[in-house]
Amino acid sequence: MRTSSPPTLSNKNKNKSNNNDNDQNIGANNAALTDVTPRIAIFDYGAGNLFSLKAALERNGSRDVSVIQDMKSLSNYDGLVLPGVGNFDPAVKSIGKDKGFLISAIDCKIPVLGICLGMEMLFNASEEGRMEGLKVIDGHVRLLDKKRVKVPHMGWNNIQLVRHKTNSENSIKKRNHVSGNNNDTSDGRGRLLRNIKDNSWVYFVHSYRIFPGRKSRQIVVANTRYGDNIIPAVIERGNIFGTQFHPEKSGPVGSQIIRNFLEICMSNTAVVNPTENK
Amino acid sequence: MPLSKRIIPCLDVDNGRVVKGVHFRGVKDAGNPVSLARKYSDEGADELVFLDITATQEGRDIIKNIVRSVASVIDIPFTVGGGIKRLEDARAILLSGADKVSINTAAVKNPELIGQLMSIFGKQCIVVAIDAKRNYNLQNIDRTNKNIFSTADRQNKNVGGKIRNRNDKQEHQTLNHNKDSNTGKYWFEVRVYGGKEGTGIDAIQWAKKIEALGAGEILLTSIDTDGTEFGYDIELTKSICKAVRVPVIASGGCGNPKHMLDVFKRTNVDAALAASIFHYDKFSVDKVKEYLRANGIQIRV
What we know:
The structure holds 2 protein chains of 2 kinds.
Chain A: H1 25-30, E1 39-43, H2 51-59, E2 64-68, E3 79-82, H3 88-95, H4 99-107, E4 112-115, H5 117-120, E5 125-126, E6 139-143, E7 153-161, H6 167-177, E8 200-206, E9 208-212, E10 220-226, E11 229-237, E12 240-243, H7 251-277
Chain B: E1 6-14, E2 17-22, E3 25-31, H1 33-43, E4 48-52, H2 57-73, E5 78-81, H3 87-95, E6 100-103, H4 105-109, H5 112-121, E7 126-135, E8 149-150, H6 151-157, H7 166-175, E9 185-192, E10 197-202, H8 203-213, E11 217-222, H9 234-243, E12 248-251, H10 257-266, E13 271-274, H11 276-279, H12 285-294
Parallel strand pairs in B: 1-4, 1-13, 4-5, 5-6, 6-7, 7-11, 11-12, 12-13
Antiparallel strand pairs in B: 1-2, 2-3, 7-9, 8-9, 9-10
Helix pairs in contact in B: 1-2, 10-12
């Protein structure tokens, strides 16, 4: 249950109290999303900047964000974020032996948000490295075409929402039904992009892109256009979510996406925990 | 769809305060970095750049705390530069929450640093800043690796060598203040240590080299136009943009939103950086972006 109205996207008028240097204002206000906030784990590949991501999750409503180095304790969390910093091989290697824990957590429907590299790792393999990916989703990761566009694709670009009306979407809905969730946001776009308008601006920094395999094309819920390429920008399959851009750096739109993910984690807990207690 | 052009307020930080210098000299206090960062971010800035101009080592540690505070209050990317000499300096800044580090003097003194940073953090984290200045001395230099420009070319490009409007006049005056420039020929020299020291390196050659070494982005400052508020250095910016495929940020000389429109219309630059026009509340970021959008520039709103 909400104890207060959800935080508004715009903090524009906050800087009326401009000259005070209290940086905690935003975090404090937005943290009041729900009584109980989801426990979120960020997996650390050991490659750097997780601070902004952690801060963004906290600003947008989780009071309990942990940076974890192994996946053994995943069952203690309501959601997992695979961050988007680093290189493919070292990142996959850092999961290493814990891959089994991750896969079984995914099987148990823990919501997972892969950001950029974190999403790319879910696929079979990447041109960025030689190691095998996590193979959670069928498909490959390839370098952007340097001859045609500037690489990295870095900066603000807009996303076009995709609407699927197919059998496979229905089967996804059925699968979600097990955990009491359903993808239906009345517009058929899935849950991560709830309240996100078509052509919203988000911040990209990447040199690689995903090519979902034939059977997983339906997971793409938003694309972006870069040069004459159409690049998948957001994927969603059951409780697995991925963004090619960085929601933690995407201003108000990114914050909304993070809040959506946190709400997914919360609603997942609400349904899963009672069954566990039985 | 092309990427949105980015508007980047720049905050020069000295001992924990934002300051603004003119021609790399004479600094004025402009406010608290964290409050300013939040203000710009709320107003719709696309990115922020912090340049630490603190001279002392104690002051250097202040920037890490600032980076941390900034990272916890804003949700747009930001770059930190100034005084980053070694891998460890860059790591400390990135671990404090910055998205990118900008290196300048260190890249010139030790170009391998670019590759080292790239292999650890990825090229998207590596901004190489180029401070360039026209050098009218063409004697005793190796011309083979210099791109030579001439004042005559520049005037010919304006209709019949005539000065078309006030902006061109200002640009003309700015760029011809050097009385020794009789030959009218010059090249762009990379300068280091905050513009104080020449390197003999041609800026266009250098841009190509750092791209090859793994720079993800170039922050290009014209020392000739910096602080003048007469507009960006179109000639320099255009030349660098033509030479590389990594994104280029134009910097130095912005005095009003028209200058941003100018640099976006006349060059292929990806972002425009400015400091003073935002600091003293002369123009707010959202007003500037509205103006650019109304004039047909692809802008995030």
